[in-house]
């Protein structure tokens, strides 16, 4: 099957959607499909998916989308699959019009799929709430099929009182951005030694792009209260947006102000194998999301998949995870309230004092991730493609 994937983010650009798209493309290519990628200016092909290549689009406005349509016309795909996250497309509405435009052109055999990684409305002008919501629905409604990556958004799309946004919408969760595959000859103790972690000391990890919703400030506040031998490795890069760069500077300033320079190590963007090694080397991964845990967070799924004890925050009240399993405190993870550094401290000390709890969380958390396997995800995508052709 000839597939054109459209993603505003694509490696080496930093971003969870780009990492997800790269993994999906590689798996589809492995299954024998011909996959091309239309992406932003900084995207480039990855060697692990030789038939996946980028076509650069400078700005995601009307002119940029016109260029996308020209490229699609030349490639003559059977499936155009849009990976949609509002912020990645610069909050512009042009991408939201693409499914309808392609259907009006009636290219023979072409079908359009939209994967919505969130349902955040694009920006138009002040007080444009209803129009913004209409454009959010449009990119899903005018597609032949749609994928929702978390249960809450799927229920929103399917249970709208005015009717489902798309009768061919399906729920397919995301997978781990990085699978457990450390470098050849990996030695956990050697990796821990680089952080001067002695026996009995804790090496904590934070994983993911630096973002104000991931609670890194609260981890730093907790680090002030934890034993001085505790180390934190911050695994991940910085987004391209100005606000991402500003947030990273704020974090660096906090580390200096708190005198944590010797205890907090920031890796920056690093290879997947090194990410895997850092996670396996850690005693626990801290993901205290300010808005609560959600399976839309690839960092959470990745941490669980690595068999490392995870400390994260309670899901928002009323948020459904169904049909995915709910994270149970003390069984799969340790749960704390958002923006409560004292609770993070207590959770870390609890793990440090109980190897039994660590082992239980590691085993149960990792077993939970079978539902997020990439083999299952690709099979579900192929089933959707077949259903709409």
Explain what you see.
The protein is of the alpha/beta class. It has two domains: 2-175 and 373-388, Rossmann fold; 188-371, Glycogen Phosphorylase B (Rossmann fold), CATH 3.40.50. The chain is built from 13 helices and 13 strands. It has helices at 16-30, 62-75, 98-105, 129-141, 151-158, 188-193, 216-225, 242-257, 272-281, 298-305, 341-353, 355-368, 374-388, and strands at residues 2-7, 34-40, 54-57, 79-84, 111-116, 145-148, 169-171, 203-207, 231-235, 264-268, 284-287, 310-313, 334-336. A seven-stranded parallel beta sheet has the order 3-2-1-4-5-6-7, sandwiched between helices. Strands 10-9-8-11-12-13 form a six-stranded parallel beta sheet, with helices on both faces. The longest helix is centred in the middle third of the chain and has 16 residues, at 242-257.
Outline:
The chain is of the alpha/beta class and 389 residues long. Helix content is 39%, strand content 16%.
Q: Segments where pLDDT lies below 50 for 5+ residues?
A: none
Return the CATH topology of the largest domain.
Rossmann fold
Task: Name the CATH superfamily assignment of the largest domain.
Answer: Glycogen Phosphorylase B
Mean pLDDT: 89
Strand order of the largest sheet: 3-2-1-4-5-6-7
Secondary structure tally: strands:
13
> What is the overall silhouette?
elongated
Distance between the ends: 11 Å
Classify the oligomer.
single chain
Just give the CATH class of the largest domain: Alpha Beta
Please give the domain count.
2
Instruction: Report on the biggest sheet.
Output: 7 strands, parallel
How many helices? The count is 13
Radius of gyration from the alpha-carbon trace, in angstroms: 21 Å
